[in-house]
Amino acid sequence: MGWSYRLWRRRFQERLGKDADDSELALRVARSYAARLSYFDRDVGAGLIIHGRRMVEDGRYEAALAALDEAVEIGTKHVHRSPIRYAPIIATGLLRKSWVLDAVGRRDEALDAAERAARIFRALVKMRPGHFELPLYSALSCVTTWTQPSEESLATAEEALAVCRRAVRQPGWREVHRAAALHNVATCLRAAGRPGDALPTAEEAVRVYRVLDHADGAEYWPRFEGSLRSLEAILTDLDRYSDAAAVAQEAAEIRARRSSP
After folding, report:
1. DSSP 105-173
2. CB-based contacts of 203: which residues, under 8 Å, 6+ apart?
3. Rounded Cα distance, 144 and 82, in Å
4. Kind plus residue range of the DSSP H or E element containing 214
5. Which residues of 135-173 are buried (b: 16+ CB within 10 A; e: fewer)?
6. CA distances from 5 to 2, 51, 54, 131 (A)
7. In angstroms, rounded to a whole number, what is the distance separating the alpha carbons of residues 143 and 189?
8. pLDDT for residue 225 is more than 60
């Protein structure tokens, strides 16, 4: 495949990174290559995933789902022959599909797609540690968020937090990932009737969100406020009413500050 393929692929990715019309043109070119040599099917699959994102940006959800379904189909066709090349296409396509399905109100289907993506990403993490932890975290986080908080969902929330802690030095990792994972674990522990166990996790989530809020409150304050409300509820469950009132006051002050012009 040599330098000519690398040059073609770089130009292909540059065109995919532009607008929807460019991504459609790039896909047509990739399909023409794939028609002659199946090696290029992976590029078609990767291009379909990016094109699906472009469709979402344009509000064309059904077109996005069709593109992602085709990407998953391509990955499934070849994964037995080259798992490390095609399993990420399947898993990423399923994860992106879950987001689109959730956006259009098809929560049960979204949850199923996220669970399937998580299973594949788990296997990929074992095959190539240090490369797939973040998408695994994302899939697990979706499963936790879309499942009623309970003892049953706690295991998934704790797995997501563990993965997040391992991914701390990976490109794309952000502190908000840890904060969200901590919040989910605390929520599940409280729902399972374990407020004492939930407390330190909820407090850690609040500490992380507080730092993020100081850095960029416009982006993080709704999550920060939600984390404070969760901590307030846990403290109330533990009959620590004065501490709960102090947390509630901080949440109210944040809302007032962010809502003021």
Report:
1. T-HHHHHHHHHHHHHHHHHHHHHSTTTSHHHHHHHHHHHHHTS--SHHHHHHHHHHHHHHHHTTTSTT-
2. 231
3. 30
4. helix 195-237
5. bbbbbbbbbbbbbebeeebbebbbbbbebbebbeeeeeb
6. 6, 21, 25, 23
7. 16
8. yes
Domain 7-146 is of which CATH architecture? Answer: Alpha Horseshoe (1.25)
Per-residue pLDDT band for 35 (boundaries 50, 70, 90) equals confident
Q: Which residues contact 49 (CB under 8 A, 6 or more apart)?
A: 67, 68, 71, 89, 92, 93, 96
Q: Select from 2.40.420.20, 1.25.40.10, 3.40.50.2000, 3.40.47.10 the CATH code of 151-261.
A: 1.25.40.10
Most confident of 113-127, 208-222, 243-257: 113-127
| Closest by CA position to 249, among listed 235, 239, 237, 214 | 235
pLDDT tens, position by position, 149-201: 888 899 999 999 999 988 877 777 888 999 999 999 999 999 999 999 999 99
* Sole residue written with tokens 């399923």: 94
Phi-psi category of residue 173: left, alpha or beta, with phi > 0 → left and psi -120 to 50 → alpha: beta
Q: How far apart, in whole angstroms, are the C-alpha atoms of residue 240 and residue 215?
A: 30
Domain boundaries, the chain: 7-146, 151-261
Count CB neighbours of 5 within 10 A.
14
Q: Are 110 and 99 in contact (CB under 8 A)?
A: yes
Residue of 187, 181, 178, 190 lying closest to 140 (CA atoms): 181
Q: Are 191 and 150 in contact (CB under 8 A)?
A: yes
Give residue 204's identity as a one-letter amino acid code. E
